[in-house]
Amino acid sequence: MKIRNTLILAVLSLMVLRVAAQEPVELVMDPQKVRGAEACGECHLSAFEVWKKTPHARGFKTLHRLKASEEITRKMGFPLIKRESLCLNCHYTPTIKRDTHRALSGVSCESCHGAGADWIDVHNDYGGKGIDHKTETAEHKQQRIAAAKAGGMLRPSELYGVVANCYSCHTVPHERLINVGGHTSGSTDFEFLAWQEKIRHNFLDSFLNGDGTQNVERPPERKRVMYLLGRCLELEYSLRGMGKATEPKRFAKAMSRRVRNAVGEIRDIAGRVDADELDKMLAAVRDTRVIPNNGKALETTAESIGVLTRQLLARADKLDLAIIDKIIDGTAPPLPEPDLIATTTTAPDTATPTVRTPDTPDAATDATPKTADAKPKIIKRGGIAASGQVKTRIRPVAKHDSVGPSKCGNCHEGPTEWWYSDPHFASMDRFFENDAKARQIADFYGLSPGLWLKGNRICADCHATVLPHRKTRDARDGVGCESCHGGAADYLEPHKEGDKALGLERPGYKRGLELGMAELRNSAVRAEACASCHYITDERLLSSGHPSGEQFDYAASLKKIRHWEGDRDPDAGAYAAVLSKRGPVPQVTLARKAETIIIEPEPQVAAKADPAPKPIAKPKETEKRVQPKRPQRPKAVTTRPARSAPTAETVKLRLEPFPDLDPNAPIEDVLLFIKQRIQKLYEAGSREKGNNRDR
Fold this sequence. Notes:
two-stranded antiparallel ribbon, 30 helices
């Protein structure tokens, strides 16, 4: 008995310590005003039956049993997931029982429509006994709706408020929960219109016009508005989430990714729908630094996005939104892009450019006549176009579609954590940020900045994860799980089957290999996956200035990206075999733009002439000579003529300072300048040699 009491006291003490260690829980919904789903179900029978079958309702009995949930509560210091925990805000409908915040049910009616204590008895009062929605007066209806709204009800017709509740949870705007607790960084593939089909409970139209038993599908016009609203709210709440970031860790990177993707979606719609609000949203984000510790500015921008969204929603019925149907199903044609190549690059006269060497002069003209007057030298160089065939991909066509990193991250928390901090995660950033080097390569290759982001262009083949419905749209994510492990559309669910302890004999592993999962345990398969992007042999890409990857250190790189259990031999020999099979990197002519070079001469400085020689003085006769006197023959005095001042031509031979060259300038340019200087030295040496011969 004594031992039992001791154990009980120890457990209670531990629980007290855990409660004391956790941060205070701030609930978004007032638990004292919650009435519960059953209260709503007394009238909304059909909707209540639909709700009970949704993940929102089922999570009440399943969520706390997951190992991931137990791990998160342990890291966060919650005693129980359903009591006094942050989880109550998004995974449950909270209430108060015995002075304790606890879960009443899963996500329910009031999670979206507001706690109902102040409006539940108002919103269904049509004006007295025997009066229903058909006989209610217009004046009373207006008063009823106003009273319900004042009590905190978010009516289905008030789409902004209802949908905003969805994004406030599905973006998971809580830094510590993600960085410390290890919670997923939100439903990164969340799109309101698609997800609402899983929980649709639209019985209102059926109730007003029929027997109230039909879960009516929304008309196309309504769906377009819902899609547009969802994209705008994604941007707003991603900015709000980023505003809570204080350190450049997983949470900040995830929110930055959400903002970037949301901007891409809005840009795509703005290019097809004539709405000033969308352009203003893009301008607002463009003027805001999306970085940690910039909460005030990010929150201000988010607020402005919210205002613009409500303005847009108010006049949505006046906009032509038909094109959104094609955006939704992925059949919208690419937006027209300007042909930058025609304006920035001049093609050579011949279709096949020759390889330039130091002995092959530019197609240049010297507009400065060779006179004594120093004038700028003007060199006009013609452009050289990239050589080789234009392609849309350089990797083998995948046999299985991708589902995106978010689907994988739902289970593989560790690899996902690694991915957010690895350069593969940011491999698309250079295109979104309009990187100068990437822009130059794309320019020479034949892609304008708008096209290099598309999922069906060559850049995305190696730099992005492309989902099937986004092939003609901007690619969202960088190099993700499926870039190496294979498109998971067919093996995602089957590969989970069986006990992990079975290893290679696990049924799910074997089934996954049959459905497109790459067997990366095989060194040859692993080497091929890396070489397909890190070893470039495409002629046009190389000619456009893209690195070949010849210096890529396969073994060292594998060590840097290790995110798997156990050791795995890099097997540099397997990588060398893949490269040998691919063949050497071809020699190509680097493309360049047409340009005019002006070389300013060095300022002329008059050289000083040597002074004239002094006349030779006669010897003084201070001593008597021994030999007999005879007439002295005067000695011939040879006077070296004075050096004349350097001529203007000589001054011109003085070399100009070696010009500052662009670090990215072609080696041919450098060799050309060296050749010119050597030629001048040679000419000067020849003249000096001739002068000596004359002497």
